[in-house]
Specification:
This is UPF0481 protein. InterPro entries: DUF247_pln (IPR004158). This protein has 15 helices and 5 strands. By secondary structure, it is mainly alpha-helical. It folds into 3 domains: 106 residues, no CATH class; 143 residues, no CATH class; 30 residues, no CATH class. The longest helix is centred in the last third of the chain and has 27 residues. It starts with a helix and ends in a 6-residue tail after the last helix.
Length: 326
């Protein structure tokens, strides 16, 4: 089994057998004990569990790509240390995937991540990524052709696109149909940028495939260019900012110097751009702004009524003063 664990690492591990096994056991047992204790009522004098800053630091460290421990190691140790006499005694009866998700649940980007049994998990970061993918994990539709960025959320709204909140358990499943874009809600928290960066970095290191999270980050970066975009998506229930960070800057930083292989939203982009660039859409844009702005709409309606009334009065006067030629 030791060789199987060594094969999980890309680089050669220059450690003696005993040292290597000891490292795996110590790290694995720490993770398991952390998850189990966190599922219980926290002990006040336990700095690892009780201190919020410690929890934030631990989550950041546990999800760094370079700190990953093979999932099979954690799973093996978990099974060896599980109390088989616990029965339904909470939390000893919880499985490793459920315990893991409970620990990270409030620190993930998704609103309702679930244990995803579609893939075999490689490590903790891979587990979190798979839990956020939801049903999107099995969707491999993409267009290899080139794609152009879409306008920001506020510009799309001016073009008649309506933003609505999608299903919260399907984070990456963005849908565009009949000028309505449904985006599942995303929670931006203290660990948000770190988690986003780690998942994207992990995707960049994987064999060339569909960069689903990287593609998702590109969509958010295109839609969110300023605070007006953030406000629009927040009002739609799509963004929940619990960190108070500068979201436009965050999204811009996430996608800088990142390559996207097989962009997974290219078909959606083509539909959105086709609507936005259509001549009829551009023709209606000024009138949409008038209707959306109450003051502009009032002034416009007042002007229409005034002109109509003036024309009507002028017509009546012309009729009354008309003299039939003798």
């Amino acid at each position: 089994m030791e060789q199987d664990y060594r094969n999980c690492y890309e680089e050669h591990i220059d450690m003696l057998s005993d040292e290597f096994v000891e490292m795996l056991v110590v790290d694995g047992c720490f993770i398991i004990e952390l998850f189990r204790k966190s599922a219980q009522v926290p002990i006040v004098d336990d700095p690892v569990i009780h201190k919020s800053w410690m929890r934030t630091t631990l989550i950041n460290d546990l999800l760094l790509p370079e700190n990953q421990l093979p999932w099979m190691v954690v799973e093996c140790l978990f099974n060896l240390t599980q109390d088989t006499t616990a029965g339904n005694n909470y939390p000893l009866s919880l499985s490793l995937p459920v315990l893991t998700l409970r620990y990270f649940k409030e620190s993930t980007l998704g609103m309702d991540p679930k244990v995803n049994g579609t893939f075999v998990n490689k490590h903790l970061l891979d587990f979190i990524k798979n839990s956020l993918l939801g049903s999107y994990a099995v969707k491999n539709e993409f267009d290899r052709s080139s794609w152009s960025p879409i306008p920001s959320a506020t510009n799309l709204k001016k073009a008649g696109v309506i933003f609505r909140c999608g299903k919260k358990d399907d984070m990456l499943n963005i849908i565009y149909k009949n000028n309505v874009m449904k985006i599942p809600p995303i929670r931006i928290h203290v660990n948000g940028e770190s988690l986003f960066r780690n998942v994207i970095a992990y995707e960049q290191c994987e064999p060339i495939g569909i960069s689903k999270f990287t593609s998702y980050a590109v969509v958010l970066e295109n839609l969110i260019k300023c605070e007006d975009d953030v406000e629009l998506l927040t009002e739609s229930g799509i963004i929940v900012n619990s960190s108070g960070c500068d979201i436009p800057l965050l999204m811009s930083n996430l996608t800088s110097d990142v390559r996207v292989y097989n962009f997974s939203y290219s078909k959606l982009y083509k539909k959105v751009n086709a609507h936005y660039l259509h001549p009829f859409t551009r023709f209606l844009a000024p009138y949409r702004r008038i209707v959306e702005d109450p003051l502009s709409f009032f002034n416009f309606a007042y002007a229409v009524v005034a002109v109509t009334l003036f024309t009507f009065i002028q017509t009546i006067i012309s009729i009354l003063t008309y003299q039939r030629p003798v």
